[in-house]
Structure formats: structure tokens, C-alpha cells
Amino acid sequence: MSSHKLFKIAGLIAVITIISKVAGFFRDVVIAQYYGASVISDAYFYAYQIPAFALILLGGLGGPFHTATIAFFGKAVKDKSAPSTDVNRVMSTFLTATGIFFLILSVLVFFFSDQIVAVIAAHGSIQLKTLASFQLKLMSPIMFIGGLIGIFYGIANVFDEFFFTSLSPVVASACVIAALFLFDKDQYGAILATATLVGAVGQLLIQLPVFLRSGFVYKPSFDFFSPSMKKIKEILFPAMIGTTIGQINIYIDMFFASQLEEGAWSAIAYANRIFQFPVGILITSMLVPLFPMFSNFVADKDWDALKKYFRQGVLSLWYFAFPILMLIFLLAQDAIRLLFQRGQFDSHDTFMVTEALFYLSVSIIPYAARDTLTRVFYAFDDSKTPFYVAMASILLKALLNYLLIGPLGLAAITLSTTIITFTNGLLLAILLIKKIKMDYYSLIPNTLKLTLATAGSALVIIPVNIWIAAFLGEETFLILAFRLGLVTVIGFIVYFFLTMLLKIDIAHYVLNKLKDKIIK
Q: What is the pTM of this model?
């Protein structure tokens, strides 16, 4: 793949990520409007974490089934031509094995939903457990769909098909939004759970046209122990274990959050969705093109280039992460009030989401560094070190939640996440030195400049925000939206000029890009 094509695809994925996240964010806004932060929404977010594990983490973009499919069939299918009989047989076997495995999981989740909810919501009320179990039964078929989506999505990517298949999460969000608009909310969350299931089916269906055009024809095959399947399993199983480890931290959070007030887990879920909106776009758009570059540098043993682009990658992510963190601290409560506070979502719900988001938002800085470091380990074909680091974090996560939940309540869950993210990033940075002596000290001058520019921007934005609010007077929805938008724009402009004055390299790169766009 040429560099031009690589960046073109990376840009396309970034755009699709933005579209998907906007749709997902709007879905959450609609859910909040109809259910607020209530026991029904708590039950839904508890129940959905189980099928979401299969649908999003195992079968989603970059998930184990997606990755294993690309890794094996990307080499087995030559020049994007129709697959041979042998390759088609391997694909059929892979689909058969995956279907059987996830079908069994779906059945187990359906029949043992009470027991599953009793563990993850151990301290919850009887009403919460009953509702969560009921909704989990309705959504249990999503487990079956998850792994299959990952394979179909992977095959589409092998044939350089990205757009419509990557938009499948939008279909899922649209189904939930449409269902809530078309039907009145119910007291059990059945509409919400059923719409989520329908959305998952839609995600699967949108993958099928590309799969059929690829030349693959599914015929049930049970050759599970062939050499080809062994190769797939060698890629798949370590990735599945690593993904599972990360999910366990979420279940730990759910366990501890169940002892908090009604709506606490919904508030944490909403805060995490808000946080992931800018973070997901940043990480995806930057690390998609960087990862193959890291791999090439390692293959060529071009250590200077690896260090240079690692530094540029981290600083580029931080350049945008610092002002986002500042704006969250200054405007989060008003923004949450604007986006969510209507219908069943009241001012107390706004306060809970704001509190959770404050403590979580700090993790955006170590989050960017940790994910970049992880890609460097992957470039060295080392997936074990990030796995061991993630595994060690499970015990620390449980300990932090246990120690902090008493004095901090809801904030303990997101604060512990921030501490874990920082700890994981620090460990990865230390362990990477065994492979290559990274020049971390070179990050310090620009990091200090970014901190100074962020602090300077905040000193300008705080009085400007107060003055604009006083000038505009009583805030309607449109006035509040206008104020937040105006303050955000001013904040980024002030930050940009301060970074220019401080001679931060990425600021000059952004300026040159803007000049190019204006000239064109």
C-alpha cells in the first residue's frame, strides 16, 4: 500500500469515526431525554455491557476477530482476486467455529442472565437486578452476531472496502434513536433493549453485500484443527485474552458502582461517552497512520525515525488534548446541561455526570501516551508486555475502587480509571527502554510549553465566559449553545496563538495546513 493511499484510508476512517461517534452521542442524548439517569437506564447500561463486549470489543474495528481475519486472509487472498477453494473452506470453517462459539455464549447468557447480573450488580436493588436481567435476555442474541460482524468486516477491509461497512455502528445508533421516537418509553426498558438488538442485526446485514461480492461462499465446514485454523487461532486467542482483560476492569467498576445511588452507573456511562467522543477521534485519526510507520521503522531498524515519529505522535495528540481538557474543566457542567438536561434528565443527573467527567477527563493526557506506546510494542511484535501490564491493572483497579468509593462515591470509579491509565502508561514507557532507549526527556520542553499555553488560555477564558454570560442575560437553549460555542472557539484561538508565541512545532504545522486550505 502506498503512503498516499494509507493516509487517504486513515483520513476516511477518521471521518467515519466522527460520523459514528456523533450518531452514538446523539443516541445517548435521546436515551437520557427519555430515561434520565434512572434505574431503567442503569439496568440498560449494566445489561448492555455483556453483549457490547462481543459486538464492539471482540467484533469491532481493531477487535480480535477483525484483526485475525485481516492478518490471515489478507495474505491468503492474492491481489484482491476471488478466493481459492482451499481459502474459501478456511473461511467457512472460521465462520462455523465462530458461530458455534458465540451461539453457545448467547444461550448461556440468556439462561444465566440472573446469575450474571447478580455478580456485576451485586449491591444493586432488586428492581435494578430484575430489569437488567430482563433486558440482558432480550439482548443475548447480540453475542452471536458480534464475532460474525468482526469476520465480515475484516474481509471487507481485505478487499479495500471501508466506507459502508465502517458505518455499521451508525445503523445501530439509528435503530435506538428511531425506536425511542416512534414508541413511548416503557417501565422495563424493553424498547431500548429490543432496538439495540435490531441495530446489531442491521450492523450484520450491512456487511453482507461486500462479503458476497468478494467471491466467498459459505458452506458449513468443521475442519477446526487444520494448519490454517491453527494459524488463525494463534493470532485470535492472545488478542481475545487481552481484550477480555480490559473488559474485566469495566465489570469491576460495575460491581462497585452498584452500591451507589440510583443513576450512578448511567452517569458514569454518559461521562465515558462524552470523554470518548474527542479521544476516540484523536486516537483513531493519529494512530491509524502511525502504527504501520512504526512497524516499518522497526523492520528497517531505523531507530532515529522511530523515536522522531513517536515524539511527534505523542506531542500532536497532546497538542489537542490539553485544550480539550481545559474546556471540559471550564464548560462541562453547562455543556452537559445543554446536551442532556431535558425530559427525564434533571439537574441532579447533570451534576452526577459532571462529577464523573471531571475525574475521568484528566486521563486524556496519559491515555494518548499509553496508546502510542502500545503501538510501538506491537511494532516490535510484542503483544505480551501490554497484556501483562493490563492484567496487573485489574488488581489495582479493584483496590482503588475499594479504597476510594467510601470517601468519594461516584467520583471514585472515574478517578481510579485515570490513575490506572497513568500507571499503565508509565509502566509501558519504562519497559520499552529494554527494547530501545527512547528519548523521553525530549518531550519535556514542549509539554511544559503546552501546559503554560493551556493555563494562559484558561486565565483568558474564565473572565470572558463570565462576561459573555452576563452580557447575553437569561439563557435559553440557543443562547447557551451560542455562548458555549463562542467560548470554545475563543479558547482554541487563544491557545493557538499562545502556542505560536511559545514556538511549539505542531502549532506552525497547523498554521501551514490552514494556509494551504485557504490558498486552495
A: 0.77
